[in-house]
């Protein structure tokens, strides 16, 4: 499956620059034992008071990491410690939208150390993984979705056929299958020529937790053909509607900034830009 190749529009370079921006305020490394897994706005813990963050079972310690001050949680019972921290941040109003969903917490080389509530990952600067699916028709059009207007992030904006987070319980393939069903009501067996397309990386400030978050995310995107006569139907209430657009219509909406930043760069990759 090959998308029509055209020169990259002007918005693409700007979007890629925006996807890689330093923090707006100093951040302090967050460690599990001796492993750096994230970062925290230097003012967050001071703002809410360290004594409110954790009970005495899991000590949040100030340590040195590569010659700089850092915060550290014990490596033992890391999942329990991180989730206690997440609950404390939530109580203090310093957390993102609570999802009751666990995401994996990994080292930079991909070793999994723990899991944590999704709502805490941005304020703690923890790396996440997401998946997107570009759904084409045999005639060359694209299925896209408009996100629900009640979504906490990018409500009402346009997105790829499917886009979602890889939970701690998912493999990459399982995440694609689960999210494709939940968002579009499609089983992977219904799709044709499903294939990996590429990756998109984000490292940029996040508006979560009053702007104290930082987004570090890798998106693995895929493409497939939706057979003629098969129409996506949302299952989880997170999609307002689907539309089947020509490439020209997709290009126009991209130029107008109507797609989410993540979907825009996934589609830029799909179009070879």
From TrEMBL:
Keywords for this protein: Hydrolase
InterPro entries reported in the protein's UniProt record: NUDIX_hydrolase-like_dom_sf, NUDIX_hydrolase_dom
Pfam families in alphabetical order: NUDIX
Domain Nudix hydrolase: 126-267
Record-linked CDD domains: NUDIX_Tnr3_like
Cited Gene3D superfamilies: Nucleoside Triphosphate Pyrophosphohydrolase
GO molecular function: hydrolase activity
Record has rRNA processing as a keyword: no
Protein name: NUDIX hydrolase
């Amino acid at each position: 499956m090959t998308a029509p190749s055209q020169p990259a529009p002007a918005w693409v370079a700007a979007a890629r620059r925006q996807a890689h921006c330093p923090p707006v305020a100093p951040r302090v490394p967050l460690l599990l034992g001796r492993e750096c897994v994230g970062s925290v706005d230097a003012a967050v813990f001071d703002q809410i008071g360290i004594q409110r963050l954790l009970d005495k079972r899991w000590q949040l310690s100030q340590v040195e990491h590569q010659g700089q001050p850092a915060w550290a949680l014990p490596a033992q019972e890391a999942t329990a410690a991180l989730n206690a921290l997440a609950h404390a941040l939530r109580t203090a109003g310093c957390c993102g939208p609570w999802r009751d969903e666990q995401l994996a917490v990994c080292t930079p080389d991909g070793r999994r150390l723990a899991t944590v509530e999704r709502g805490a990952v941005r304020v703690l600067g923890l790396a996440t993984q997401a998946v997107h699916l570009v759904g084409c028709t045999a005639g060359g059009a694209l299925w896209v979705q408009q996100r629900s207007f009640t979504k906490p992030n990018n409500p009402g904006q346009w997105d790829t056929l499917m886009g979602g987070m890889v939970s701690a319980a998912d493999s990459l393939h399982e995440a694609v299958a689960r999210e494709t069903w939940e968002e579009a009501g499609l089983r992977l067996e219904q799709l044709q020529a499903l294939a990996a397309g590429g990756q998109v990386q984000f490292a940029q400030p996040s508006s979560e937790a009053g702007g104290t978050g930082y987004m570090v995310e890798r998106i693995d995107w895929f493409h497939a053909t939706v057979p003629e006569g098969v129409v996506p139907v949302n299952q989880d209430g997170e999609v307002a509607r689907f539309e089947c657009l020509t490439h020209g219509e997709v290009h126009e909406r991209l130029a107008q900034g109507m797609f989410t930043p993540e979907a825009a760069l996934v589609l830029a990759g799909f179009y070879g830009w």
